[in-house]
Amino acid sequence: MKVGIDIEKISRMNEKLIEKVATKDEIKWLEQFSPKVRTQHMGSLWVAKEATVKALGGGDIREVEILHEQNGRPKINLFGKTKQIFEKNKFKSVEISISHTKTDVIAIVLIN
């Protein structure tokens, strides 16, 4: 089992940063939120991607996609080199949990 965790100040998040790393589906997901809370959700994407790469021991955060089930539960899709790292290590599953306050956001990723 591998673990990755990341925490960040929401005040550090901005549209330009997210545009560099977000997929089309992630941007579409963000658009449903009012500007008042969108930054919190941008932060959740950022820390989730960072925690995933840490758990894998490498990869590219642009090749990690955070999607959400209908009930809001986050799930991870991997692409490119990052997916190859997952497969090369014969991992079977990846789990994620994300939480935030008005000022901070945290994510933890467990890979088996």
Structural summary, described in words:
Strands 1-5-4 form a three-stranded antiparallel beta sheet, covered by helices on one side. It has a two-stranded antiparallel sheet with strand order 2-3. The longest helix is centred in the middle third of the chain and has 22 residues, at 35-56. By secondary structure, it is of the alpha+beta class. It has a single domain (2-111), classed as 4'-phosphopantetheinyl transferase domain (Ribosomal Protein L22, Chain A). It has helices at residues 15-21, 24-30, 35-56, 80-88, and strands at residues 2-9, 64-68, 74-78, 94-100, 104-111. The protein contains four helices and five strands; from the N terminus they run βαααββαββ. The N and C termini lie close together (5 Å). The model has no long low-confidence stretch (mean pLDDT 95).
Question: Features of this protein?
Answer:
Ribosomal Protein L22, Chain A, two-stranded antiparallel sheet, 112 residues
Short structural description:
By secondary structure, the protein is of the alpha+beta class. It has helices at 15-21, 24-30, 35-56, 80-88, and strands at residues 2-9, 64-68, 74-78, 94-100, 104-111. The protein has a single domain, classed as 4'-phosphopantetheinyl transferase domain (Ribosomal Protein L22, Chain A, Alpha-Beta Complex), CATH 3.90.470.20.
